[in-house]
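Bench log, entry 3. Co-assembly request; chain sequences pasted below exactly as received.
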Amino acid sequence: MSDSPTLTIRGQHSDDWSELYTLWSDEAILRESLELPYMAEDAFRDQANTPAHVHVLIAEMSSLSGRKHIIGAAWLSANPRSRRRHVGELALMVRAEHRGTEAEAQLVDKALTMADQWLGLRRVEAIVFAANEGLLALFESKGFEREVLMRQYALRDGKLSDAVQLARIRGEA
Amino acid sequence: MSDPTNQLDIIIRGMDSEDWEDSAALLASGNVAYNTLQLPYMSRDYIRERAENVPRGLMMLAAEVEETVVGQLGLHRQFGRRAH
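Structure output for the full assembly:
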């Protein structure tokens, strides 16, 4: 109907690693993560072979011309420990220009559908830097609640920065 | 012996892989498993293997009383942007 780009949320392809590597070279992305810059390319390629309990959702935009590019990804890690099998951890990485958009919200929705409808998780956890207000607001709008403020959680912009642990209990949201 | 205010001689030391049998007994005793994320009925082989392959960044301490490990703890070091 429109000439706007369309969003696809899909699983990871083996040849995504080079585009994901570009994503991880983006300072705005790195800042909100726990990763370091200047990641070795081949170490990254190996890392892209994610273990079976980690589910990767790729958010890809395609323009009318058919060009596709990855704008973000979500990692949903099901906890492998027996007594925490009902728990998953959600990590989200979205390019700065797509934050706060419907695309980002859809990525979270799909990840939560995966958690609820396919993996049967009861509790999904997320850790977000306290200064990342946009992402905190998005998670809260999807039923996450703030549980803990973790002080001096990790280096961000050269400062030891606080982070918030959130969780969403299925059926309570 | 040496400390009159304390009946027990307690030694705090690094944990050795040979401590694995004490570790298994500890885990099977009282409500130890209950208060951790461990399961009951753990295989001794698994406990032994874990004691023999302590991952990098994990420091294990043992509290020994009368030649038996009665307590243990793990100090997990973080890396990169959480190395502090």
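The CA atoms of residues 40 and 56 of chain A lie 21 Å apart. Residues 102-118 of chain A form the longest helix (17 residues).
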